[in-house]
């Protein structure tokens, strides 16, 4: 079985991808510094797949440790790189933290694998598109000036990968441009586990519904959309995890598009914030306490992806809809109430 390194593998998307890699017959190996995750997630993964994944705790910004790991683990044939700081608001307040962490971790990995054949899947973001000129947005849409240092790290990282692929022939890269991951594993044993106040919509919805938060604020009700709230392409995290497995498989077969390629990973459908709230209320049976507040700086009005390329070339398509997203997120929140983590 091929060994696949998953950096940030105890995080939200990383933990689900570890499960799906195992289900697909791979052997996942995790590196995580636990700066934005919890070691107990390893226990949760073990409950799902029946074995405890190999785990290494260190910071990928430590170049010596990265090089030592690569030398000591020659059997690794692929990397799925999640490890990065990811809060848009914090990146505006602490840009140097984001540039240091997100670039040094990536560059250290690339340097350590120089001269070794490696398949590399990069965790990118639809933030690279900014406010799209047309919808649904395709992979050929222009990359616009980033609205935050976080978004800028994704744009520049993609440039680093593309230029590295052009200079060396041992790297094979796919960048997956995610839309908005939500939901949790069907077992309700892993899901999104925000530290402190959630930065994303759905954990704020579930925490409000269960009583951790007094109310939810919808940022803006006067946008040029059917109901006035922002529109996003929400994707179930399990579908997203499976897209990473599909990307590794495509790289193993030899991507016909060459050493660097990008794919949108979404459902191809847009839901407004108010539609997402209504879907949650329907799935959970809970009436949500929310208010419509002023717009939030940096929010784009609407974005959803064209996923034709992912369907035709990656051989992947999202299977789970908004109802499954909301029901699984609520099941995870209820599980956490009875079984606190962290």
From TrEMBL:
Q: Spell out the NCBIfam families in the cross-references.
A: galE
Q: What is this protein called?
A: UDP-glucose 4-epimerase
Q: Which keywords does this chain's UniProt record carry?
A: Carbohydrate metabolism, Isomerase, NAD
What family classification does the UniProt entry report for this protein? Belongs to the NAD(P)-dependent epimerase/dehydratase family.
The encoding gene: galE
Provide one Gene Ontology biological process annotation. galactose metabolic process
E.C. no? 5.1.3.2
**Required cofactor names:** NAD(+)
Domain NAD(P)-binding positions: 5-327
Question: Per the record, GO CC terms?
Answer: cytosol
Q: Which GO terms describe its molecular function?
A: UDP-glucose 4-epimerase activity
**Per the record, what are the reactions this protein catalyses?**
UDP-alpha-D-glucose = UDP-alpha-D-galactose
> Which InterPro entries has this protein been placed in?
NAD(P)-bd_dom (IPR016040), NAD(P)-bd_dom_sf (IPR036291), UDP_G4E (IPR005886)
- SUPFAM superfamilies for this protein: NAD(P)-binding Rossmann-fold domains
Instruction: Establish whether keyword NAD is in the entry.
Output: yes
Q: Which domain of life is it from?
A: Bacteria
**What is annotated about its quaternary structure and interactions?**
Homodimer.
- Pathway recorded for this protein: Carbohydrate metabolism; galactose metabolism
């Amino acid at each position: 079985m091929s060994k696949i390194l998953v950096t940030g593998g105890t995080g939200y998307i990383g933990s689900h991808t570890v499960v799906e890699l195992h289900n697909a017959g791979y052997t996942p190996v995790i590196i995580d510094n636990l700066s934005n995750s919890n070691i107990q997630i390893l226990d949760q993964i073990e409950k799902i797949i029946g074995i405890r994944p190999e785990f290494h705790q260190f910071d990928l910004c430590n170049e010596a440790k990265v090089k030592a790991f690569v030398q000591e683990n020659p059997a690794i044939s692929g990397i799925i790189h999640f490890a990065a700081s990811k809060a848009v608001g914090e990146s505006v307040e602490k840009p140097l933290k984001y540039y240091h962490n997100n670039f040094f971790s990536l560059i250290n990995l690339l340097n350590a694998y120089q001269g070794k054949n490696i398949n590399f899947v990069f965790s990118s973001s639809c933030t690279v598109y900014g406010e799209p000129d047309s919808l649904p947005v395709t992979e050929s849409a222009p990359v616009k000036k980033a609205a935050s240092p976080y978004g800028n790290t994704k744009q520049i990282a993609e440039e680093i990968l593309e230029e590295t692929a052009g200079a060396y022939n041992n790297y094979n890269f796919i960048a997956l441009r995610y839309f908005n991951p939500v939901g949790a594993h069907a077992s309700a044993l892993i899901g999104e586990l925000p530290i402190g106040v959630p930065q994303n919509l759905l954990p704020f919805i579930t925490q409000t519904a269960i009583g951790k938060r007094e109310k939810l604020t919808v940022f803006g009700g006067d946008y040029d959309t059917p109901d006035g709230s922002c529109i996003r392409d929400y994707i179930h995290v399990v579908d997203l995890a499976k897209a990473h497995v599909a990307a590794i498989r495509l790289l193993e077969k030899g991507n016909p598009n060459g050493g660097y390629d990008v794919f949108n990973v979404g459902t191809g459908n847009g839901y407004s914030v108010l539609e997402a709230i209504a879907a949650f209320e329907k799935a959970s049976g809970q009436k949500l306490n929310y208010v419509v507040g002023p717009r939030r700086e940096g929010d784009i009005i609407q974005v959803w992806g064209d996923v034709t390329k992912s369907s035709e070339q990656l051989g992947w398509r999202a299977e789970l809809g908004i109802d499954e997203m909301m029901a699984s997120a609520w099941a995870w929140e209820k599980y956490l109430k009875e079984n606190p983590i962290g």
